[in-house]
Amino acid sequence: MCAKLNQVLSRFIPEGVVKETFKSCYYSVYYNRKHFKENNFRVYYRAGHFEYSFDEGVRFSSHENMADELKRSLKGYLAKYSLKPGDTVIDCGAYIGEFTLYAAAAVGPSGRVIAFEPDAGIYGRLLANIELNGSRNITTVNKGLWSKDGILKFVGDSVKGYSFMFGGDSAAGVDTPVASLDNELARLKVGRVDFIKADVEGAEIELIKGAAKTLSAGPVMAAIASYHTVDGKKSCFGLEEALSRIGYNSETAHPGHLTTYAWK
């Protein structure tokens, strides 16, 4: 009832002080009480942007409401690993920055986050959210991740999802630069990596092929979204096999946002 009322009032209340006050009250009172009883953070709307406050002390802001995505996936990504000050974190498939911004705040100024996002339009929104927070420990890369460097067709939409076409022809596809994680981290002179989060739209197994040196260099913890369908089956199965071949243990869990965890 309140959610519908919010949609109606948001549509008909003109932009200005009244609408901003309404949105602030809606998120502070109703939204947090209704939707965040089981979560470790609260969301507020202030001065034209959203703010997120976590029980563990992490705080950041965004131009767009990313609370639902945080609810859906953040606990899953961090189910087996807690980010620490000074950690180096790789965010593969950063989207508009929900995990990137959380990680940057969690690892602090002594840590570093490398965020990869292939979609040019989404990449611009990612940069805007990073700028809003004044984050100086984030390096962004406007590329996809694959088993090797090159150009692939990036196809799909925000409803059906995105994927790369390897060596395929598609009028609807967008030529998009891709890189292996090993090569890109070498170019960025990134040494130790502590944690890898990935949601790469079905390219999970290719990502692992291109990250063999990084994963072999030291014990890296990884949490990889593996709910995509590859060759007719969920990617978690092929992903676990690929991880085993390079000496990593793995486990797939978190059914609400299926995630494969990897560790040495």
Low-confidence stretches: none
What is the second-level CATH architecture of the largest domain? 3-Layer(aba) Sandwich
Name given to the CATH homologous superfamily of the largest domain: Vaccinia Virus protein VP39
Oligomer state equals: single chain
Spatial gap, N to C terminus: 49 Å
Secondary structure category:
alpha/beta
How would you portray this structure in words?
The protein has helices spanning 2-12, 17-35, 67-77, 98-107, 120-133, 181-187, 204-209, 212-217, 235-245, and strands at 41-46, 49-54, 59-62, 88-92, 112-116, 138-141, 144-145, 150-157, 161-165, 174-179, 195-198, 221-225, 229-230, 233-234, 249-253, 259-263. It has 264 residues and is of the alpha/beta class. The protein has 2 domains: 1-65, no CATH class; 72-263, Vaccinia Virus protein VP39 (Rossmann fold). The strands form 4 sheets. The protein has a 7-stranded mixed beta sheet, with helices on both faces. A 4-stranded mixed beta sheet has the order 7-10-8-9. Strands 1-2-3 form a 3-stranded antiparallel beta sheet. Helix 1 packs antiparallel against helix 2 (17-35). The longest helix is centred in the N-terminal third of the chain and has 19 residues, at 17-35. The relative contact order is 0.11. The model has no long low-confidence stretch (mean pLDDT 88).
Task: Tell me the layout of helices and strands.
Layout: H1 2-12, H2 17-35, E1 41-46, E2 49-54, E3 59-62, H3 67-77, E4 88-92, H4 98-107, E5 112-116, H5 120-133, E6 138-141, E7 144-145, E8 150-157, E9 161-165, E10 174-179, H6 181-187, E11 195-198, H7 204-209, H8 212-217, E12 221-225, E13 229-230, E14 233-234, H9 235-245, E15 249-253, E16 259-263
Parallel strand pairs: 4-5, 4-11, 5-6, 7-10, 11-12
Antiparallel strand pairs: 1-2, 2-3, 8-9, 8-10, 12-16, 13-14, 15-16
